[in-house]
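Let's practice the habit of predicting before peeking. Look at the sequence and jot down your guess about where helices and strands might fall. Then scroll down.
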Amino acid sequence: MKLLVFAHRLELGGTQTNAIELAAALRDRHGFDIVFHATPGPMEALLKEKGLSLVAAPDSRFHPSYSRMRTLRDIVRDEKPDLIHAWDWWQGLEAYLGAYLPLKVPLLISDMMMNLTRVLPKGVPTTFGFRGLQQEAIQKGWQKAWLLPPPVDVTGNAPGLPCEKTARAQLGLQPHCLALVTVSRLSHVMKSENIFHTIEAVRHIGGDVPIQFVIVGDGAARPEIERQAKAANTALGRQAVILTGALADPRPAYAAADIVLGMGGSALRGMAFGKPVIVTGEKGFARPFCPQSAETFETTGFYGVGRDDGETYHLENMIRGLARDSLLRGAIGAFGQDYVNRNHALEELSGKLANYCEEAATVSPGLPVADVTRSSFYYFRDRRFKTASRDRRADKDGQGKKSSARSISNGSTPDSTEFS
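Done guessing? Here is the structure:
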């Protein structure tokens, strides 16, 4: 099968890693002929490492983009793929409007959002990243809603890769300190809030617990995070919070960690390294991944929404408890590693995706008037209200519309809550 993989801008991020690694696995393990289409970026290094060539897509601040759809149509006419696999709603919508409807090319969409993206057409086969969202999609009328959890290369992400001692030295960690690590985009949406909570927790407990918090990543929220980190370091009289910037290969950070904080694929990669993981989310949500919480996270995704009432206090207690109990850290880490190996291994999930592709390629594109009408309604309705909401927030902050535009253009993806 010839598969055109349509991904977003190749910035450092979990979805980009998923798209590249699964495409390579489909080629190597299942004989797929892969055409990889995305906007160039630093993740091209992984693309080259996997032996995949890039057919460049134009960049765009707004989606759907006419220039991107026109380029996609040209590639489809040249390459004649059996199926387009679009990652996330913005590529999905562009492939739907640019190739599925006019050129009748079968389409599979992988939606990795945490909420159901209503703008997507229900008649197109779609994969979802966790069971609860898949079930919601089925209940709301998606004709083919399949489960595709975030994959992890458990061979390349495992204890001892790289050496923990070398990794700690690379990150500037003190030998006597426990390393609390997060690998994340430093965006204002979803990501930065839990980092602020964690810095505050480290400031509170860092006087009597020898701990350092390593923040790996970059993004629009970095200046605010740096200011809070500097204040915490000043209060504690030592470098308790370290910002490394983005790492093309974040494995040294996971290898160096004693405790990992994160959501989604980042949490899973921490677990693959055998590290105890505290899953984070919005409104102060934080909960360790352990036997008692595993079923919940299977349903809700590796993410959550808290009540925003005393959550920092709870996070402090979680960190303090894990920091003081090495046996507990080892037990939770071993459980998480076994869980990832059984449920998120790249090799197994590539086989599942291969089956989905084969079935999606048999779905004959039509002209579903109801689907087109519905998607258009949600797109224009949500675009109007989301834009107005962003402008109100920007004006409230005293930054005006320029701040709103900057947050869109500098983020690695459109807002993760957009149209959800």
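How did you do? The first strand starts at residue 2 and ends at 6.
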